[in-house]
Amino acid sequence: xxxxxxxxxxxxxxxxxxxxxxxxxxxxxxxxxxxxxxxxxxxxxxxxxxxxxxxxxxxxxxxxxxxxxxxxxxxxxxxxxxxxxxxxxxxxxxxxxxxxxxxxxxxxxxxxxxxxxxxxxxxxxxxxxxxxxxxxxxxxxxxxxxxxxxxxxxxxxxxxxxxxxxxxxxxxxxxxxxxxxxxxxx
Length: 186
Prior knowledge:
Elements: E1 34-36, E2 42-45, E3 50-52, H1 61-65, H2 70-89, E4 93-100, H3 112-117, E5 129-137, E6 140-141, E7 144-150, H4 154-168, E8 172-173, E9 182-185
Parallel strand pairs: 4-5
Antiparallel strand pairs: 1-2, 2-3, 5-6, 5-7, 7-9, 8-9
Helix pairs in contact: 2-4
């Protein structure tokens, strides 16, 4: 059996309907990360396994991104992969959270901060981190990405701004205030 892409100690068959069918082990991915399964549906990582996301049974990988152009999709991929890796090298943890609304505009997932506070491997008083919030409304990801942050002090603030400016240029907006969120227009 082939080895998983993100954990070479684990194997997969290739016929799994989840992203594991593509060689992605859930335990090696960020909790609540999104990935396309071999069945073309969207799957969430709950931290231990891939779980199919059924939004009134109509949310598929294609429907989630169909309103985005190629440039927006590439920017989202860049944010969730290369930018997160770069932030990690500067000791800034990055979490991805999918915040979903139903048709009545009521949240069907918890607040992003509730999710992060439930994590046991982070010291909220000391460690700098960001939460990349992917808002899903009516089955589509919002193209304005909201990034919340904590413990971003002088040195980390400079690193954070340089990283986002490098990757997103004028599509990155943040006044540097602790109370302001970071916004990226895909």
